[in-house]
């Protein structure tokens, strides 16, 4: 399956096409969102937090590196992570600029934490982060009393912040964003008074669950969240479930590759993240879900998927925040469904690692997909036989994994440029693909 061609930025990964079947079971790596938050909560809690099944992807390692610069002792081995927290007050001014790499989660949530600290910090990331909007976080944090500046008034990185002495606010989120919500929750924990956040649609609730797990309090009624300032958190052990956003690639592979049957073990089943399962069932996928009875603060279980006869559907509205990261692989799934699939209300895709609307459409079109972009999503016509060709991840890990799965149902080999981007969230991805072929 894997063969490198060329060198440097021209290096390509050759992926064998026209696969006959995928069989076996996999333990999916830890959830990226929960791994990020486990480091953050461990750093601001009092005591030693032990994290099992931490995702050692590039993004999560960037979070560890940043908190080490803020004076937090963090030990990591192959089995677990140990974080020695001393509360918010234990964070210290960094001597150098904080580099978040490719991680939007790291920079946006960290801004909320730093907003309550009375010291100076500067943050930057890679070229992708430099294009991603920070105003949606900076604006409410400024309202709470933090000083934030940077390129275009703090709208883009590099960005600087001096925090401290925050006041609580009532804030209506202009977009459905778990990152913005979580940033304001972290700031609210340090503010004078009770901060109220109103969501447009419910987004992933890992931050709210983790506050309670670490002994804190947070109120939630529908889409209204309230968090009191001045809370102190206590260290807790965290068992990170498998990432359903990573599992999604194998769920789709199992549904579209002939003669396939795959079991994915200990996958996170948080209902704010399981939109991919609902959509696949709606499209006719053969799925069985076995939820664990001993689930802690995050539910999990095993998922069985088999080759399926699929039909097109419409994906819109409140479903979108529950599967926003899975839309690239859902687009591939739709190319193998009878009829037309329409994805709308997904404007947020434009400000991910790439403009995922344009990138998905352009790259799948190279492989022969009948797909077109719209202002807020895409339209996919199936069922379509895909062809081989040269494609690129454009430095976006989810695009790279989607195109790797697409190769399996193409009638010619696929050459993937910038495959290294996949290491951001799934360093074992190609090893796991190979395991299912053996």
Structure description:
β11 (170-172), α6 and β12 form a beta-alpha-beta unit. The protein has 438 residues and is α/β, with parallel strands linked by helices. The chain folds into 2 domains: 4-28 and 241-437, Enolpyruvate transferase domain (UDP-n-acetylglucosamine1-carboxyvinyl-transferase, Chain), CATH 3.65.10; 32-228, Enolpyruvate transferase domain (UDP-n-acetylglucosamine1-carboxyvinyl-transferase, Chain). Helix content is 30%, strand content 26%.
Give descriptors for this structure:
438 residues, alpha/beta, UDP-n-acetylglucosamine1-carboxyvinyl-transferase, Chain, 2 domains, four-stranded mixed β-sheet, 24 strands, globular, disordered N terminus
Shape: globular
Number of strands: 24
* Proportion in β-strands: 25-35%
CATH top-level class of the largest domain: Alpha Beta
In the CATH hierarchy, the third-tier topology of the largest domain is known as UDP-n-acetylglucosamine1-carboxyvinyl-transferase, Chain
State mean pLDDT (0 to 100 scale): 94
What is the correct CATH architecture of the largest domain? Alpha-beta prism
Structural domain tally: 2
The span between the termini is 11 Å
Strands side by side in the biggest sheet: 1-2-24-23
Summarize the biggest pleated sheet. Answer: 4 strands, mixed
- How many helices? The count is 13
